[in-house]
Amino acid sequence: MEAYTTIIKAVIANKTTTFQMKLLLSQMLGEVKTRTQTGISLVYLKKAVFGSVQKLLCFNAILSSVEKKEFMLLFSKIQRIYSVFVKAAFRYRFAKATLQISDDLCMIPLNNMAPNVITLLHHGSKYLFRGADLVRIIESSLLNSTIFFPLPLCPKNPYNNMPFSDALLYTIYFFLDKSCRVPSHFIRAYFVASFNLDKFRENYEQPIRDEIIRRYVYNSHCDSICKDVEDMLIIYGSHVGRLSIHETFPRQTLVDVMKPYLHLMLIGVYGVSGSEKKFYAQTTLTRKLRQFVAYNPRFGRMYYKRVLINGVYKLHRTFDTHHVSFHADDENLLHPTFIFEWVPYHPPPHEVDMGEVNAEENVVDPRNDPRNDPGNDQTNEDDLVNLNDETNALNEPIAPNSEDLVSKCDDETLSPENYIIRTLTCTQTNMSSQEGRLTMFCMQVFIYYFSLAYTFVRRSLVSKIK
User: Are strands 145-146 and 125-130 parallel, antiparallel or unpaired?
Assistant: First the structure.
């Protein structure tokens, strides 16, 4: 601020300046010197200068309106001269500065004339940045957190680890706004908060926390969130039904299927207390998991399928990955077509759930099989009979336990819609393939119109009670 004080002294020394104006400018000069000696930043120093000017004009009853206008003209003249010197000094430093970085964060050369590239002068050196890289740098700092609690940091230059000044942040924001790239919601919110981290966190805590949770779920590696998925299934298993996930089930498949459910659980646990979104996430998660388990309670189990390879039967290991879509429309659950498609999944007849049976013990070794001996021309009829019996046994469908199905359907806490769907589930298992489809379709049509009548009667009774 030495240039600023020099300009004020030159205006005071001017002969055309009246004594009253010299006195006011001297008071403002003393305020600037006092603030400069305390060692405060340049931003707060400028605020102090404008504060002193406002104090002299608003709380000085001795000055007339003509003298106040005269003082404002002198102050504007000082500001204009100082602005010219600042711009000239910036252009000189920008021209003399050396280019330190000419590549982006992926080591791809950048062209400083490209519309999506900006040159920043930071601590005496020039750096080239791509607009997309700046967005990622700023967002990663603003969305910093500790156990899903927002702790935003000031954006820094990744090449020298020094924070960006407010002037550079304004330059970056207007560059992103003019380069046909809409700044993200959080960068715009940071701009509205005047690049004040405390105000930014206070005004936008809920969207910041939601974005932190979303990025953790969808951007983290499967090994990082697999433990969270397993904990979620254990916690909600007593409410919606437990799934027997085999220990060798692919982690990537399990995480990809359970990511939307984990997202709801984390919002319900770490969301802002008292918000409607947190309550909605908790109720939606329970309903979605109940639908998931009801569709395929065997999800995650390991099966062995007997395959004939080169004349030898071997057990091929496979996993049950069939599941209902998370984004299924809940409002269409009572539609006949949707009910017909939304039936519990059963494995094909040729798949057998072997439980914890070791596959190595069930593989027939071709070297020990006498049927593969080229010298043995006689065919053992007992082996053929046993082989046909085993094949027929494998082709028979696995009938579920009817008592378990009935016990699952006798749940008084279920809503009418879920009770209807589970009733259809129990009934379908006791039907043949041809007659069962026709009967199921008739039952679905009947239940659809019955549910409409039930809803109409319930609403009419509620309206009469009110």
Answer: unpaired
